[in-house]
Amino acid sequence: MNGLQSLPQWQNDFHYPGSAMLGLLNAIQNIGLLVGLPFAPYISDGIGRRTAVLVGAAIMVCPHPITSSLTNRSMTIHEF
């Protein structure tokens, strides 16, 4: 992510984000992880560890075609 921030095209497409927006863009994956963390042990106990890992991997892989096609910030989040 830090390498992308140095590209003029990225800066232009994301409307030259300030420090707060850069922090959010860098931290959003970890925020999602923290949201799911309290539920993970119960799901794993309920459906089994291997199935839980398979479902988690599918959740991580399936959105990649969508996110890789995003071209600017307005496609990902609304203006603050």
Description:
It is a single chain. The protein has 80 residues and is mainly alpha-helical. The protein folds into 2 domains: 1-31, no CATH class; 39-70. It has 6 helices and no strands. Helix 4 packs across helix 5. The mean pLDDT is 83.
Oligomer: single chain
- Could you say which overall geometry the principal axes of the C-alpha atoms support? elongated
Give the distance, in angstroms, between the N- and C-terminal Cα atoms: 21 Å
Helix-strand makeup class: mainly alpha
Rg over alpha carbons: 16 Å
Topology order in helix (H) and strand (E) letters:
HHHHHH
The major beta sheet can be summarized as: none
Question: What is the percentage of strand-forming residues?
Answer: under 5%
Keywords:
mainly alpha; 80 residues; elongated; single chain; 6 helices
Give a quick rundown of the structure:
With 80 residues, this protein is mainly α.
Write the layout of secondary structure elements.
Blueprint: H1 2-5, H2 8-13, H3 19-36, H4 40-47, H5 49-61, H6 64-68
